[in-house]
Model the fold of this input.
Amino acid sequence: MSSHSHPVTDATATRPVEFKIWRGDAKGGAFEQYTAQVTGGMVVLDCIHQVQAEQAPDLACRWNCKAGKCGSCSAEINGKPSLMCMTRMDTLPADQPVTVEPLRAFPSIRDLVTDVSWNYEVKKKIVPFKPREPDRPDGTWTVFQEDVERVQEFRKCIECFLCQDVCHVLRDHHKHDEFIGPRFLVYTAALEMHPLDTADRIADLKERDGIGYCNIGKCCTKVCPESITITDNAIIPLKERVVDEFYDPITRLLRIFRPK
Amino acid sequence: MSVPEAIVHEHDVIVIGAGGAGLRAAIEASAGGAKVAVICKSLLGKAHTVMAEGGMAAAMGHVDDRDNWEVHFSDTMRGGGYLNNWVMAEHHAKEAPDRVRELEAWGAVFDRTKDGRILQRHFGGHRYQRLAHVGDRTGLEMIRTLQDHGVHQGLDVYMEMTVVALLTSGGRIAGVLGYDRERGRLRVWRAGAVILATGGIGKAYRITSNSWEYTGDGQALAYEAGAEIMDMEFIQFHPTGMVWPPSVRGLLVTEGVRGEGGALRNSEGRRFMWDDIPEAYKNQVALDEEEAWRYVCGDKSAQRPAELLTRDHVARCINREVKAGRGSPHGGVFLDIAWIKSRVPNGEEHIKKKLPSMYHQFMQLAGVDITKEAMEVGPTTHYCMGGVRVDGDTQMSSVPGLFAAGEVAAGLHGANRLGGNSLSDLVVFGKRAGEHAARWAKEHGAAPVDSAQVEAETARALAPFDRPNGENPYAIQSDLQDVMQRLVGMVRTKSELEEALGHLDSLRARAAKCGVSGHREYHPGWHTAIDLRNLLHVSEMITKSALLRPESRGGHFREDFPAKSEECTGFNLVARRADDGSMDIDRRQRAPIRPDLQAIIERMK
Amino acid sequence: MTRAPLPLPQAPGFLETRRIDRWWIQPTLVFLGFGAFIVYSTWAALQGNNYFTGGPTHPGAQQLLSPFYSPVLWDAAGLHSGHAWFGQQPAWWPSYLLFSPALFILPFPGLFRFTCYYYRGAYYKAFWGDPSNCGVGEPGFRGTKYRGEQKLPLILQNAHRYALYIAILFIGILGYDAWVSLWSIDAEGAKHFGISVGSLVLTMNVVLLGSYTFGCHCWRHLIGGRQDCFSCHKHQHAAWKRVSWLNQRHMLFAWMSLFWVGFSDVYVRLCSMGIWTDWRIVG
Done:
């Protein structure tokens, strides 16, 4: 939840570390014990690869860039939703086994791999970007840096879905049919606050997307590997826009006299 | 279909790969009225394009109005050692600005100039400020924009699928055979046209900036289908990859660091890049550090820092310093951005704002604060200039109906790619491939699938399961990476290349006997066994092509032939499968360049 | 492409987690902190006395008024704070009901805090375990019947901005109280300027409450966040940036102002009871 600044100094000394890795599928599973030989600077994903290469060649794990840029290797490490490729071993307590398990807010496929296809279905339903008419004859727009900065924060998202995983509305209450989760509230915020966008998603937010299910526990913000201020900068401003549109009698009255 | 277990899908156009090129191709093919499927090895939006940091080159002239397509064209040709496909270089320079504007219209949010236009930054080998960018995560912006736009264009996306063979019929393309990684079930996609957009080959090397997906699938599949593969000797070693700690060795440090003023220093603190400036760039390099800094600040009368010379050259200079014993403690050199704090007010914030991912990456993975300390960097395998030989207008390969775009295609970059020309390559030629593939599929329709081929390829794909006690494929892949890193790396000689060929033969023999056990669901060992076939093909292409180019140029450096040879400017090397199954490499004479384009090059020299 | 959905993993049981840090500390501290404040403020509000110093009945002392009791609509019977808007406890007040000036006042700032975005997230966790903490299982009874703020009753939290409007009025009133605390009245009724520790306490109180109130998420939205084009609304953008600075520290100011407003009452109360002396620094 914070960046670590311990310098990596000793990459030659090796120490054994116990791992408890969840093995199983949709029908069920259990933790199995493995031991990895850890040197300085290694991350959890390195250990998983070591286990794959030497002890369990069929251990399923999803990963891709190993640089914290693609958001594929999401898992729960010692109970905390994290990217395996960005969790350095020397930031974990050395004296106890490291538990690694799949995301809990999504169906299990096998071992550390979960079925995240729900996220792709949700995104498809959100009204796409619709820009205003271009400002210039060459089809471009005049937009200033201060206009895009807020949206650029949201567009840092690497779609690792850790925020979806930690959100209790999905994780504990299984509201997948009524709530789109923090990731897609951020996505909607990026569209709604886009200086060129003309589409309106406020009614969808209130009803179909279930923004009211968010009870602002900020767990999503805490796990975001891109440090996007999800709750304060995306979700709450959207909630306020929903209030403007549906719950505030004064703004509703004003709209009668001052139509958009 | 005589393979009972295969699931069959019908489409007009199949796109293999969902990075920038694949998605742009799919969007265009769909717009052309084709029924399009996108098949990708990862989840949608995770492709290697997300790793691109610096920006996309397009001569829009927003920051420097001296820029235009002719300057961009000549920069690209010069950077490529004049081995580029000049048709492609022309299309690329002319069309890139439209592709950038199109991304903006689809929702991309680029950094802005003070007058509200798309901002452009400096990059190695580009004469003017040319790279449209979003901080240091431009690739993410591109892929997300294309993905979010694409899902509303009626594409069928097949995620986490591995393609094991291209199906052909009477010499033309007929479809694709693959399996889903989740369950291991085989699938056949029938189609009129297939577009390869599978990216590069970095995983043939030990130290690489590339993700696991980069196993040369497209090059190998096309080769097996009879297509010609060109320029494979040209591998770009990015000069600045992380060297410490070992687990992230090779991870990219964006050229943007140097674009923002980052200095390369050796252990003596000397900015060694000024010690050796190539003839072709003599007029384009600053005389001293003062002038270089003025260039970084946007002074149009100043010339660039020597750190911003082309990647091949910078990589070799770093290599030279390390070999001479002037390297950093972990075998690299120092890349220092912290020094600019003496030149800009509020320097720490400035660095964090301009290079957020780099700050984050070093802080988190190495415990180094780049606003205070220098980074340790060294060369890393980054990009494959070579690939499927395509027609410069249509992107069709020598196999009718088979197209290629992006890194998997050869031509645009010649012997060396300029930074920033890759993202623009993806969308310029992705669009062209999509457009022409859709047209070709409409004109030629689908071809029958040869069930004997499906059966044979299925059996080949599943063969590792028949040898549960065979050798672990990981071990073979690891040995292959060592051979390529050690013998076919940045600096090559005849004897080492020949030695490598011997190793490749024995690795191929071991791979034929490798085995896996257990189920087919998400089986990483099995996936590695399949990747291994592709890696062996491309490794052989690289090694054989490197042997047959007796000169040094761009991404190919021969210690035994350290100079550029005039004779070698006249040909490209092309690999193709001979009738007996062995690999043939031949010299293909280059078509003479169109006189008007030659005139541009002369004028810009 | 589509296939039968795989079953979701079973929701974690109550307090189930594989977190190994001391995750219970944070909600426990919040519970204790809020709990202590609620207990004390309720007690203090019900006292109906010792809520001021100075004024006509205590000549010479700085005029301090407890923020729990400000503004004073009616003084409690027999007390003359000098702050009352409408004089003494009204005759129509039923004798069987306890009277305290604070009862008319405290619900409003209370409502502002109750509906505050920061507090909501904090007390949902600390007081009804929804969730207990990030990645920690909840009590099972809610399950899929969870309503959040999507439905009644908590949908009413959307009225937060109206609580804000009232809270802003209170900032003005408390600012006036801080000004008044710089003056004492002597036996002849003449006003004298002076600064006591109590004046500083009440001034600090209004600064902290103001920092909390003007860092409100609603305020941030209304002042400029609702615009998509900042360059088209330069003043709103400038205001939004300043409010954003406070908003980033909303939790900090929420706690500091909560503590300080309680302490202000303690201070005034003890001085009024004669246990503490309000030392004068200037004048």
Q: What stands out?
A: DSSP finds 16 helices and 20 strands in chain B. The two ends of chain B are 59 Å apart (CA to CA). The first strand of chain B starts at residue 7 and ends at 10.
